[in-house]
Amino acid sequence: MRRICFTLQVKPDRLEEYRRRHAQVWPEMLAALRDAGWHDYSLFLRDDGLLVGYLLTDDFDAALAAMDATDVNARWQAQMAGFFASGRPDQHMHVLTEVFNLDDQLGEKP
Fold this sequence. Notes:
Layout lengths: L1 E8 L5 H9 L3 H9 L3 E7 L4 E8 L2 H9 L2 H10 L13 E2 L6 H5 L4
Antiparallel strand pairs: 1-3, 1-4, 2-3
């Protein structure tokens, strides 16, 4: 599996509402993410709005495409777009390049 890390920027005046929305993500959205191949998916939010996402997936492009094909994702992204200056977050992720992983360098498998 490939490790993916990405960043986005949440509008500072929307942080509390963003946290509330993610405390109770729709069950059908959770199932869609799982079924599309998003594993060990987490979001981390800094007080200035920097959002860092992390997930494991076999094929990130395929996982994005699978989500894009779902009705629940279209509805979720429409509701989340207002939290970001860039619009729909699923279309503006800044994927980071992994430069170090402890298990890889130790030769251990997770």
